[in-house]
Amino acid sequence: MARTRTPVVSGWFTENAPDGGGFRLLGTRCSACTAVFFPREDAYCRNPRCPGGGELAEVPLSPRGRVWSYTDGRYRPPAPYVSDPAEPWEPYTLLAVELEAEGMVVLGQAAPGTGVADLAVGTEVEVVGGVLNEDAETTWVTWQFKPVGGAA
Amino acid sequence: MSAEVAVLGAGMHPWGKWGRSFVEYGRTAARAALADAGLGWADVGSIVGADTVRSGYPGYVAGATFARALGWQGARVTSVYAACASGAQAIGAARAQILAGLADVVLVVGADAAPKGFFAPAGGERPDDPDWLRFRVLGATNPAYFALYARRRMAVHGDTLEDFAQVKVKNAAAGRLNPHARYRKAVTADEVAASAVVADPLRLLDICATSDGGAALVLTSMDFARSRGVADPVRIRAVSTVTPTYPRTVLDLPDIATDSTTAADAAAGSFRSSIARAAYEEAGLGPQDLSLAEVYDLSTALELEWYEDIGLCAEGEGAKLVREGATALGGRIPVNTSGGLASFGEAVPAQAIAQVCELTWQLRGTAGERQVPGARAGITANQGLFGHGSAVVAVR
Lengths: 152, 396
Ligand SMILES: [Zn+2]
Fold this sequence. Notes:
The complex is a heterodimer of chains A (152) and B (396).
Chain A: E1 4-7, E2 13-14, E3 24-30, E4 36-37, E5 56-60, E6 64-73, E7 92-99, E8 104-110, E9 124-134, E10 138-147
Chain B: E1 5-16, H1 22-37, E2 46-50, H2 62-70, E3 76-80, H3 86-99, E4 105-113, H4 130-138, H5 142-157, H6 161-175, H7 189-194, E5 197-199, E6 202-203, E7 212-220, H8 222-227, E8 234-240, H9 271-283, E9 292-295, H10 300-309, H11 318-324, H12 340-344, H13 348-364, E10 377-384, E11 388-395
Parallel strand pairs in B: 2-3, 2-4, 9-10
Antiparallel strand pairs in B: 1-7, 1-8, 4-7, 5-6, 8-11, 10-11
Helix pairs in contact in B: 1-2, 3-13, 6-10, 6-11, 10-11
The structure holds zinc ion.
């Protein structure tokens, strides 16, 4: 009866990180050159100056970052984005978040209730689990960002 | 020995929503370019088609598709797919064949019949395709990325919505004078501000539409041009088709994240600036030598970024240029004299070729009311999905 909770993409995040639990994005890190990849790169290191011979090991990414930029989607995106055409379109908020330790920017939707008016470039946000969409059998789980300690 | 090739012919099918096949648009543009060059299809030794992979039709084999539509005549054929840079890579392939002595006359053709609304990835369940993933996981449309760049400019450089609107006002004023443009109406800043928000802070009139259209060029060796009595043709002096360098630190379509800088520092300058730099180096000239430029104004805000990336001004000063009127017709360095994508809309494999058509007409002095007086050199610049960069320098 209950829907199965399934990650929208497998291996990109965990709901129970080993270093103390909680929701974390998962990337991979090359042991030969320290390059970090998200979405995870499991086949080969993409750093052209990598000495080679390393392993790509799974690593949880920083749980917090700062907003690099943000926007929203006022019109329904096309498939394969899943939305119910019978329902009025509810805009989502999209954040590009800078992770300092990894030196990278990661895109993600905002947690429900966070709109563009709640954000500014530089706002500190944390990554949390959320629901992308549901169908008859499945609750599709994804990552979302929400302001740290904010009302949103 | 000269590394230049001559542009003997340029032609287009008007942009718009015509409801016909891309083959027809390409054939019309090709016929127009051949007529402009004073050559027949039988004179063409090689045809290069700029491809698209949307919409199911074998745009995959655009070179041969156009050759078939013009009538099989045994020409060498090449098909090129590089997303928005397809047209420039087609020009690059044609130039290489001419410089290698493989052909004297090469016809370059790009055409598209684009679907209405947001561009979407090909169908099916394809989680190993980054373009499919960004829609499935994030719903991140192209305008969403343009809006992220625009908001970032507002925060870092102090650009305003009014600055963005001025780009549309400027490009619409130029497009009004271009018979090939889809939109030929003046637009006011108030109209931009009153248009619906698509992806905050960008409005409908800040973002280019999708369109049908076609463009073609006839390129020849310099010797061939002279043999036909064209002593001083428009010449292509550089074609840049560079990839980014690792780590790429600016989020680009269709990526979900940038490269990390844990293993290597980012190179100075942006990927887009490296595209122009490679073209300038190959051409042996710089931004100070330009009479005009055609850049990919997928959004108004993005055009301002291109000003900086092609070296018309320092980083962060793009808005100042448009405020001063420097990039308008009659300004110090007009940009998008054709009207740009703002006036044409996107017909992906045709657009980079259309940019060179505009340079050709400007450098010949035949651009009519939108003519830049005494134009001697121009650059085109654009960027295609998945790390395809392109820029073309043409001179007279
Ligand atoms: Zn490595």
